[in-house]
Amino acid sequence: MSSTGEDSSILNEEIFKEPLLLLSSQVRTRLKKRADLLAIDRDGNGVVIELKRHHGSMGVDTQALQYLSDFSSHRGMGFLSRFKKGDEKSVEEVRGFLGDAVAIDDINKATRVILVARSFDETLYSMGEWLCSMGVAYRCIAYTPFNVGRKTFSAFRSPSTACRG
Q1: What is the pLDDT of residues 36-95, one digit of tens each?
Q2: Alpha carbon 36 to chain centroid distance?
Q3: Nearest to 160, CA basis, from 13, 51, 17, 10
Q4: Residues in CB range of 6: below 8 A, 6 or more apart
Q5: Secondary structure element (H or E) that encloses residue 22, with its range
Q6: Which of 33, 64, 36 is closest to 127 using CA atoms?
Q7: Which domains does the chain possess?
Q8: Contacts with 84 (C-beta within 8 Å, 6 or more apart), sequence order
Q9: Helix H or strand E segment including 2
């Protein structure tokens, strides 16, 4: 899901429809649960990305919300120290990604969820609409694998039910 450009920590913008900087993968929460990916967007918001190989069903939303509640309690340098190395090189990478628009102290003032799966239960869409109405940004991205010769590729699409915070 990374771009093929110079910086492999920038997630593929064609999939997510926005630039995202990968901070960490297989991120442990304080309750020893493990989120698939944690990134930030250009506004410095945390983005929890949960990946499912097949169908996204009820429960995946609760799982992602558990991660969201844990990660949203960290801000600024504390967020970077906890989820990215927090060393000078990592901070410079984040500054380069964010530019001058976002101060380090303002990182992760809001956190949101992106679920990626082949398909989703309809109940996840209604849950997403409700979460959005409560101010929690939530989006589903569906993918379809297909073969060309011996290679497998994936086509990605976002259903109309999505909101950004």
Answers
A1: 999 999 999 999 999 887 767 666 777 888 888 899 899 999 998 888 765 676 888 999
A2: 9
A3: 17
A4: none
A5: strand 20-28
A6: 64
A7: 10-163 (3.40.1350.10)
A8: 23, 24, 90, 94
A9: none
